[in-house]
Design brief:
Length: 409
């Protein structure tokens, strides 16, 4: 699948700091030590509805990861999937009388537009579940040969007990896992499973649903977790630097994915850090496609809101916090964008080297974007109050805000 166009990332003088990120698996902050090419996998959308502010906030957080690494003069190998066949997509297609492939293509196209408008750097590999099927089938077959998978009425399940590290990503107790499994696409109550938590690897063809040739597995379609594992292993290999997504993916999705990959390869861990963004809500509830309480990026753009203001609004809350989207958050960002743009269009200002350093330090410290914004605010306030004689400063501020925060002034 094609991704979307990349915006330029200006090179800044000097070099950024090593990135420290909160890792769900260890529950602490880890300093990542990527090689010359940092490797990151971020779970993509299930394209049955438009991109809402929650999605956008999560992808913006991982865009900052890329930008910090680029500023350390590394390359970034970024992979993202599109879950272009899954229950919710098929259900929405039936409910609205649209062909499921058309629905997926339409919403993926809109997602690309939103990502481009928000200046989120594209993945190097953008891979759909459907196109990954030829790579998924042999992995499921291999898990079965290893005795880590079993059949139940034609469906194939992964046995969570085959991974000694199972539970290590989310660190949850069995009761919570069971509850979340039922809520997030699992089927813990299905009779005949070895462990109620075991997730499906391959679903035998159902009447009226799309299916693909699964070799010795028979016709069917892939389970959700193995989709991301197949794509990540194919393009990044084991031991990549960051597995990312919203906090609702820690369990079961990233837990199961790590187990699949670890059993398949015999290596540990799948990722050096499992990084999760908080949930954005509206009116006291998590914003979600199934609840329908959504504010869409595309809708705001249609209404004439500057995407740079949307991006600044998303950056104004720490990525790990759960927070509420309100009109006030956007109004504040529009005002800030105006102040910043006026400041960088002046001929001079106070020297900005220290500001670049502050923004770098804030982002390297578990992506503290609100602190980075406060540092820029402070420079702007100083320019207002005291002026300054550095004619290079406004340009440097503009380039730093562009390179590190992805906001074009
Ligand atoms: N296709 C799968 C991942 S393989 C999926 O979860 N798709 S999704 O469209 O439901 O979500 C895409 C990303 O947005 C995920 O990382 C998810 O955790 C994140 N996300 C969904 N809702 C919110 C929200 N309200 N706030 C923050 N992030 C969210
Ligand atoms: Zn995923």
């Amino acid at each position: 699948m094609h991704a979307w166009p990349a915006s330029e990332v200006p090179a800044l003088p000097g070099r950024g700091h090593e990135l420290r990120l909160h890792d769900t698996a260890t529950g602490g902050t880890v300093t990542l030590d990527p090689g010359p090419v940092a490797r990151i996998y971020v779970c993509g959308i299930t394209p049955y509805d438009a991109t809402h502010m929650g999605h956008a906030a999560t992808y913006t957080a991982f865009d900052l990861v890329q930008r910090v690494w680029l500023d350390t003069k590394r390359q970034v190998h970024y992979v993202q999937n599109v879950t272009d066949v899954d229950d919710p997509l098929l259900e929405r297609a039936v409910a609205t009388g649209v062909d499921w492939t058309e629905l997926a293509e339409r919403e993926t196209a809109l997602f690309r537009e939103d990502m481009t408008a928000l200046r989120l750097l594209p993945p190097r590999h953008y891979i759909g579940a459907v196109e990954a099927i030829p790579g998924i089938v042999p992995l499921v077959e291999r898990l079965r040969e290893q005795g880590a998978a079993y059949e139940l009425d034609g469906d194939v399940y992964f046995s969570v007990e085959s991974d000694p590290h199972f539970g290590g990503v989310s660190g949850l107790d069995a009761a919570t896992m069971r509850h979340l499994s039922a809520e997030r696409g699992g089927d813990p109550d299905r009779p005949g499973k070895k462990n109620p938590l075991d997730p499906m690897l391959w679903m035998a063809a159902r009447d009226g649903e799309p299916s693909w040739d699964g070799g010795s597995l028979g016709r069917g379609r892939p389970g959700w977790h193995i989709e991301c594992v197949a794509i990540a292993l194919d393009h990044l290999g084991m031991g990549f630097d960051v597995q990312g997504g919203g906090s609702d993916l820690a369990f079961p999705h990233h837990e199961m994915g790590a187990s699949h990959a670890q059993v398949l390869t015999g290596e540990f861990p799948m990722a050096k850090a499992y990084v999760h963004a908080g949930m954005v809500g509206l009116d006291g509830e998590k914003m979600s496609k199934s609840k329908g309480n959504l504010v869409f990026v595309s809708r705001l753009r249609q209404d004439g809101v500057d995407p740079a203001a949307i991006r600044l609004a998303l950056l104004s809350r720490h990525y790990r916090a759960d927070w509420e989207w309100t009109d006030g958050v956007l109004d504040e960002a529009v005002a800030r964008l105006g102040r910043w743009r006026a400041a960088v269009s002046r001929p001079d200002g106070p020297s900005a080297e220290e500001l670049v350093e502050q923004v770098r330090a804030a982002l390297a410290d578990d992506l503290n974007a609100p602190a980075a914004l406060a540092a820029v605010d402070a420079w702007v306030a100083r320019q207002d109050a005291e002026g300054g004689t550095d004619t290079g400063a406004p340009g440097l501020v503009s380039r730093a805000v562009d390179a590190l925060l992805g906001v074009a002034l």
